[in-house]
Amino acid sequence: MKKKVFVIAIIVLISLGMLASICLLKPTQAACPLGMETTCLGTIDKEPDEFFEIKITFRNNGERKGTWEIAVTFEGDDWTWKGEKKLLVLNPGKKKTLRWEGEVPEVAAADSIARLIVYYDNMFVAMNWWIHVTDEAELCIVDSEVS
């Protein structure tokens, strides 16, 4: 009995440690000179045709001035949105925030989901931002009767 409790406790501690490390990691790669910062991560609910805004702060982690072409998309199984490509020029250690505006496609199915992906330098970073498409119509049973 004590062994089972001990094994379960170890599994729970390992799981919590892994979860904490995932939550604390930023979508930045150490080998890559361009770092990204976001203020929050998560899933937001939007309806088809509803407006959204993306803000990402980039930093040049390198030792030289750099130029990058940045593209963002929301990619899912049922729908995709592509933002306009932007040119980013940064001196070493400097930051700049880029913004994109968009709308969830009208054809996006209710209860579908898409993830924010950032593309640059023939690479991509899958961010921990998701849009969940909701339906503006919501059915609720108010009353019923059986005789």
Task: Give helix and strand order, one letter per element, not per position.
Answer: HEEEEEEEEE
Q: Which radius of gyration do the C-alpha atoms yield?
A: 21 Å
Shape: flat
The name CATH uses for the topology is Immunoglobulin-like
Description:
The structure is a single chain. By secondary structure, this protein is α+β, with helices and mostly antiparallel strands. The chain has one domain: Immunoglobulin-like (Sandwich), CATH 2.60.40.10. Helices cover 16% and strands 45% of the residues. Strand 4 (66-76) and strand 5 form a beta hairpin. The longest helix has 23 residues, at 2-24.
In short:
This protein is α+β, with helices and mostly antiparallel strands.
